[in-house]
Amino acid sequence: MTRPLYLGAMAVALATALAAPASAGITLVIDDYTAGPLTLTQTGVGVMSATQGGLPPANVLGGERETTLNVTASDFGLSTSLDILTGPGIQSVSNDAGNSSIVTQTYDGAGSAGLGGIDLTANGGSFFLFGVISSDLGVTITINVEDTLGNTSTMSQAIPGPGLLAFDFGSFLGSADFTSADSIQVVFNAPRDADYVVDFFGVAGVPEPASVGLALTGLAAFGGLARVRRRFAKS
Fold first, then answer.
1. CA-CA to 216 of 20 to 30 Å: which in 9, 12, 150, 153?
2. CB-based burial of residue 231 (10 Å sphere; 0-12 exposed, 13-18 middle, 19+ buried)?
3. What is the pLDDT of residues 33-92, one digit of tens each?
């Protein structure tokens, strides 16, 4: 595929994928990755972290994002990179050969003061939702919720591939009160060599079937174009 055709097709797929979550029963945005650009690159085993404050609460819950990149294995001393690209609104993590990593992001208000007991079930919210552009090699997402009394709940799922990944509130283990959340943490656990891209993290109610279809179509299209891009880059 020629570069102009590829870029035009990618723009259409991205627009479809990013617009779909907004119509898919979204009740609360936790992070749409359109605010606070960030790049963390760790070479070899080690930890890097960044706290980004003063972000728009409409795009990042609580106005602050705390990110930690922990490279847990590095067989060949290569690098792992995390990038938040606010133009397209995506977060990507790429592990070089032999690297595994854990990315932790916490949303607990400015200066970790807490979210003040936000009601995650407001407006019909019933599950957390991720928009996954691409993923390989068994990346797992864990979501941890803590309420204002310090009670916690957790749930983990492997990313099956591109599409929408839902975490139903009723399937969490623990005692956190989802009507009084003070902190939300998401952990991406990537085995050796794994790469992934996400474009949305929020809370949703039951969406219209057509909205889900639109989102899946857009995300699948972008995933396909990502594979085309890799082939194009090698040509």
1. 153
2. exposed
3. 999 999 999 999 999 999 999 999 999 999 999 999 999 999 999 999 999 999 999 999
Q: Cα(75)–Cα(199) distance, rounded to whole angstroms?
A: 29
Q: How far is CA 117 from the centre of its chain?
A: 22
139 within 8 A of 197, measured Cβ to Cβ: no
CA atoms of 70 and 44, how far apart (whole Å): 10
The two tokens of residue 42 are: 């760790």
Distance CA 56, CA 40 (A): 21
Assign domain 24-208 to a CATH class: mainly beta
Q: How many C-beta atoms lie closer than 10 Å to residue 173's C-beta?
A: 10
Question: Mean pLDDT for the chain?
Answer: 84
Alpha carbon distance 20, 183 (integer Å)? 26
Q: Give tens-digit pLDDT for 156-171.
A: 999 999 999 999 999 9
- For helices 209-234 and 3-23, what crossing angle results, to 10°? 150
pLDDT at 16: 43
- Alpha-carbon distance of 87 to 85, in angstroms, equals 6
